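Fold this complex.
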Amino acid sequence: MMQFMLLFSRQGKLRLQKWYVPLSDKEKKKITRELVQTVLARKPKMCSFLEWRDLKIVYKRYASLYFCCAIEDQDNELITLEIIHRYVELLDKYFGSVCELDIIFNFEKAYFILDEFLLGGEAQETSKKNVLKAIEQADLLQESQNEDWGGLSSDDIL
Amino acid sequence: MAPSSVKLQELIRLIRTAKTQAEERAIIQKECADIRSSFREEDPSFRCRNVAKLLYMHMLGYPAHFGQMECLKLIASPRFSDKRVGYLGAMLLLDERQDASLLITNSIKNDMNHNSQYVQGLALCTLGCMGSSEMCRDLATEVERLLKTSNSYIKKKAALSAVHVVRKVPELIELYIPAAESLLGGKNHGVLHSAVVLITEMCVRNPEATCKFKKVVPELVQIMKNLIMSGYSPEHNVGGISDPFLQVQMLCLMRILGQNDDEVSEAMNDILAQVATNTDTSKNAGNAILYETVLTIMDIRSESGLRVLAVNILGRFLLNSDKNIRYIAMTSLLKMVQTDHNAVQRHRGTIVDCLKDTDASVKRRALDLTFALINGHNIRSMIKELLQFLDHCPAELRSDCASGIFLAAEKYAPSKRWHIDTILRVLTTAGSYVRDETVPNLIQLITNTSELYAYTVHKLYQAVLADISQQPLVQVAAWCIGEYGEFLLSGTCEEEKTVKVTEDDMLDVLEMILQSHMSSPATRGYALTSLMKLSTRISDNVDRIRKIVSIYGSCIDVELQQRAIEYNTLFKKYDHMRVAVLERMPVIEKNSQVCSDKSTKVLNDENKPFSLSKPNQTEVKIQNAANQQTVDLLDLIGISDPSSTPVVQNNQEKMVGGELLDLLGGINFGAIPSITAYNKNGLTVEFFFEKVGNNELSIQLKAKNATAKDMKEFILQAAVPKNIQIHLQAPSGSVLPALCSGCVSQTILISNPNKVSLKMRLRLSYSIEGSTVQDICEVNNFPPQTWQ
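Structure:
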């Protein structure tokens, strides 16, 4: 299973962190710091896999963002690359030509999309169409509910 | 105070305008203060926004714990937008260690029964991400119920939540087995994928489950067939391949089910062959499937044709232009080199070529694999390649490469001369990277090759003349010059044409080593001793040696000083014994194989005839990986040659892996020394040992309190590694009076029949001046006698 996924910029700023194992905030920070340093130090020609502590790290850079997953020893690195790619495709479809700024300003949506694609560190839906449909429907539910019940309009919720 | 109405995106923009860390902190502090007061006012309208802002700031690294309860409130709200942010907050801010996480159990339960599937989805997702064992236990049956719903959106999420439940509480596997079986019947890929993950997890954790699920193998095979044969399905297509995620997952399950089972493996044979031959390799997705197929073929009881197919796939991977694929191939080949050695040997050429790969990880793998493939037939060519590799290889691999070459040379050397040549070549190329124990091992090898003394010493001499910076090389050379100097002088050597060396030349070299700033203290020790030895082997320059030795009598380095003074004494008072003392070393016996043990303790029995004034002197030589200095205990007469270590006495206990400088290892003391297990904040705990019988150890612990206040409610708990049994008896009390005016004692009984090395983790708690102190520590300094 995937133990965690981190998205960070070329300067090492964290843009998203999804943890599927229970760790204290302090431990998470330490791991993040170390891993970000390790991955940023890699040269462009090097392979996308590295061994780190007792985990395998699979990472790929898309434009200015590094997508970094930690998987266990028995997991398949190549399919993890596919998972990362699928997530990027989902973000791309949702935001329309996604860039780092989209993820910065709409981080909660990035999480919602991730949570429709992966659950407990495993893929829950292998059809791109179905994931996007689910998100779309959830967004619609949010909007229609707020219209019906009053309160802040969907633009003003957050 | 007006509730904070800064929108999330506005705040993000504001924070990003900060030019310094201090500016950012100021903005965040102000915002947090506003948010806090807004929380206090319990206004539900902005709660969602405030928590979202808090989550953003949390990602930047700022504390957000005061938002935890607000997440709970959001989750309990009927609004979907609130729930979304609330559950997200729960997953980010709460983890199972916090008590607050238990409070959402009820909300999750309610939401799992909500009439909107999206709310149900949120609940399941949160449980599957951060549910603690208690939460999982509480909600297990709810999850099971949802597994049986007809809604595939919920079913797939329930299945993965069940995976999490099963990971946390393996006893609940039984609960999910019936439902999991039926999940495979559907058409929905999401459900199928989750179902396969669930079944895999159950089988991995419970062999009984494996037996129960073997019967679904035909179904799995059928699903795979459908995937491969079915036409283009755009929904699940990745680069022309139908749902690679599902294919990979099913192959993984097949692997688990087919392990150690001939019948089941047989049933999978065809489909595996089909996947292996038909999968398109041009894209990563296809290669991912092939990779998983190879892993499965190698792990189950597949027929040899299939295994060859698998190894060939890996061989093709090695030639792939994608470095990731090459890396994967290397890793897999490494795993199977023991079991399918011949098949892997066929790809030896490609593997050795990968030593020149540009990627460092591939290089490292190639190195490991190359060593694994060396055998008696290919040793010469392989070592030639490896020596070439050593010339250019990156620094981090040199040490491993050097050690590997030594090991291989030791095992398969076709001739002694080749062996020595190889070692010399390594020492000259990568001398500073070789491990410490190489030096004594090499010396031992040299002494065993009496026919090549002349050759060896000439070669070493030449090497050292060229370069005295590489310590291991210099040490071996110095030792050899000392022992076999006469061959240098005579200038004869059967193997090669050599130059005649004068006594002065030899002494020059040794003096140069002694004086060079590049020489380590150990190296100097070697040089000094060698000089001393030469005093009996040469005729003209003994005075020169005498002078050098006496100069070093006032050397700052204590080790050298000691040696010099002892040698001086040898010259002056015991000159009649000098020749006998310094005569040629006997052939050193082989000390088991060249092992990479960091410290080996041996006894040296060379001073037996010389135990004049102190009877039963046993000199213990230790090679400590941390520093190359040899500790010479009780050394009266300077035969303390650090290189002569590997002489093993018959009754010697070889202590392996003991990093302790156990100076008198091998000698049985009657009493085992006590240790201080814990010493912090004025609390000390000492352990006193007594062996009871062969495998039992009784530890009497005494806890004392050196602070000015009493420590009350003192409780000590202890845990030991597996295979050791521990039994704590009742303590004498729970109050540690101040200023060590009393103590608490407790007996711990340890039973260690497997003689596993003893370690202990202590958890101490006590209350002092009203506040509780808890601490956990590891005790690693148990004397070896406690468990050997």
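Chain B is about 55% helix and 10% strand.
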